[in-house]
Amino acid sequence: MAQHRSVLVVLFDDVQSLDFTGPVEVFTGAAKSSGDPDTYRIRTASLDGGPVRTSSGLTLVPDCALHDAADPHTLLVPGGQGTRTPDPQLIDWLRERAPGAERLVSVCSGALLLAAAGLLDGRRATTHWNVCDRLARDHPAVEVDPDPIFVRDGNVATSAGVTSGIDLALALVEEDLGRETALTVARHLVVFLRRPGNQAQFSAQLAAQTAQREPLRDVQQWITEHPDGDLSVESLAARARLSPRHFARAFQAETGVTPGRYVERIRIEHARRLLEDTSDGIEEISRACGYGTPEAMRRAFLKALGSPPAEYRRRFHAPVPR
């Protein structure tokens, strides 16, 4: 007999709607795919059971009041502007009732609510990059990791901003129901299955600034599309129609990183995606990413990630720990 899991979503004024609708769509889609609509039984609740207004102006009508809700299997705490000055009664409820859930999940700044209730003390956690400093400053007992898109620590899972809640929900569905169900949901939602939790919140392109001048922006785009090309400073400078010295100075001034560092990040990111999403061999991937040889890619991975490509692939495809 299939296991039924209840999911309780905490709602409050100024909640970010995408923080909970994304995961809810994942759980709902998984239930439909499993053929049993009760695979995930989802309920929403606010403090008094009354309507709440999201940060985008939508009005939501919860199913019940938090005090009337039974302890769920999964308690989902979204983020939003309402986490900045939360209702003390909400923190009290979380402190008292959240430990009764088998699994605690926060999305975005929802981690601030869990931390305020003491539920993240002694645990590793993440949140939206914009509030990581605040989480670390206000809650020194929490081990804040600002880089991953989600973090699992025991039965507590925290995630970064908005869409990372979908990534985390897909990982939970994979754990509960298997990879095929999670993959079916991901395909339906037209998202990837699955970005690993340790993937950085920023891609190489987002981590660097976009150059102001069009020739330099074009070079950035060309690097991204041709990681296996000649990406020497001389070659890139010629593409931008600048001298190598002028190009190197201008590129760093406008993007915040040297051309070499930018190329390094793009190649590592491309190699990681191929290791995660394809069965291509290490030698083939090293050529596709411009390393030339597996040994060159191995050295780059050890420097950037602390593990060789084969070990990275093994960890990524290992079963999700329960």
UniProtKB/TrEMBL annotation:
This is HTH-type transcriptional regulator CdhR. GO terms for molecular function: DNA-binding transcription factor activity; sequence-specific DNA binding. Keywords: Transcription, Transcription regulation. The lineage of its organism: Bacteria, Bacillati, Actinomycetota, Actinomycetes, Kitasatosporales. The gene is cdhR_3. The keyword Transport does not apply. Residues 217-315 form the HTH araC/xylS-type domain. It holds the Pfam family DJ-1_PfpI. It comes from the Bacteria.
